[in-house]
Recover the amino acids of this structure.
């Protein structure tokens, strides 16, 4: 009942004000809990935005669409932004940090029950040099698997060593093979797929949990083209989208039982999972987990220690070639105008976020 009611309310609101809504394309790998709440509880609509969720197939594609203006905003791993900005001087800016590595695990097919079982096997990744690859390599190295002991799974269509974003990798892992029948063995999973993997009829083994080894870790972040900072007025669609996400994130953090009920209903509707299921319990727990979840950061503040972990992991893999030997990371990671991280968008959004009407009950 709860999920249906929430969805109906959102649809009703869309119908009433549809003519006035401004289109806004938000690219992301997964529907985060924060996005689910903003979308299902009508927060974007309250900000006059008709938000399209664009599922990103792989990080290269997703950030290219942000830079060419196809996407207005991308929620993705902050390592992508660090890479594009410091190695390629790309004009993109981090608005804030959404999570600390939400439910990131190394998972296997049922026949792979330990990290050791991955020795000599191909492992599925999104990109051979970004995203979670550095985290994956770190975990494997701690289990005495140096890079020479495994490969990255080749994609049968593109012949690159890239399978794609987490939703694609989860589908392949659950199927036990790539679409062409090539067997698969393991990959990194994140929210909401970690919970889903554990709730399959034949659950997929959790081989290692990232936060056991690297924490805090700055993971998903809200990213926009730097030009979006030219307009920080309340009329800016980027400011309004940020406000809706901020309000949703605060709502997710609420301890009020009625609001928790609404958050759970929104997550269930967005992900198409059963209300009152143990899977929904697992997803809500992951989204609100201390350190790794979406409520670990207050109002999207970037965790500076978590960001140093991101830089360390990338530096350990010699993946800052474009930045040069004398690159000053300390200066470059200071938040400010023109910097990688710019808090002005969040500051502009915060007052607006407080005015967004929130449901008092979804029962
Ligand atoms: C990323 O996705 C795009 C769009 O689906 C696809 O054309 C491209 O080949 C993918 N890139 C890689 C490296 O797989
Ligand atoms: C990096 O990009 C900025 C903004 O587009 C530009 O002003 C600057 O000159 C670029 N720096 C380098 C080293 O290319």
């Amino acid at each position: 009942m709860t999920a249906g009611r929430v969805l109906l309310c959102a649809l009703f609101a869309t119908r009433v004000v549809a003519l006035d809504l401004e289109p806004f394309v938000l690219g992301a790998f997964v529907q985060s809990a924060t996005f689910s709440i903003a979308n299902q509880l009508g927060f974007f609509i309250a900000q006059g935005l008709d938000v399209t969720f664009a599922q990103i197939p792989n990080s290269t594609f997703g950030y290219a669409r942000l830079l060419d203006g196809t996407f207005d905003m991308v929620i993705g791993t902050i390592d992508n932004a660090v890479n594009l900005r410091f190695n390629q001087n790309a004009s993109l800016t981090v608005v804030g940090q959404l999570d600390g590595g939400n439910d990131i695990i190394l998972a296997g097919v049922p026949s792979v029950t330990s990290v050791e079982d991955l020795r000599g096997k191909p492992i599925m990744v999104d990109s051979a040099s970004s995203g979670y690859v550095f985290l994956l390599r770190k975990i494997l190295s701690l289990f005495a698997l140096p890079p020479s002991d495994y490969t990255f799974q080749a994609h049968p269509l593109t012949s690159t060593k890239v399978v794609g974003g987490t939703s694609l990798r989860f589908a392949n892992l659950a199927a036990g093979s790539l679409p062409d029948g090539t067997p698969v063995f393991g990959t990194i999973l994140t929210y909401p797929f970690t919970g889903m993997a554990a709730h399959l009829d034949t659950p997929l083994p959790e081989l290692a949990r990232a936060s056991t080894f690297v924490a805090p870790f700055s993971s998903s972040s809200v990213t926009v083209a730097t030009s979006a900072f030219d307009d920080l007025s309340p009329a800016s669609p980027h400011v309004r989208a940020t406000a809706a996400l901020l309000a949703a994130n605060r709502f997710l953090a609420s301890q009020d039982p009625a609001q928790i009920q609404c958050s759970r209903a929104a997550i269930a509707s967005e992900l198409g999972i059963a209300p009152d299921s143990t899977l929904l319990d697992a997803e809500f727990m992951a989204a609100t987990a201390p350190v790794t979840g979406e409520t670990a950061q207050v109002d999207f503040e970037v965790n500076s220690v978590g960001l140093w972990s991101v830089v360390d992991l990338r530096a350990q893999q010699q993946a800052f070639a474009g930045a040069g030997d004398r690159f000053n990371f300390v200066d470059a990671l200071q938040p400010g105008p023109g910097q990688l991280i710019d808090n002005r968008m969040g500051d502009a959004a915060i007052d607006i976020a407080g005015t967004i009407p929130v449901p008092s009950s979804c029962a």
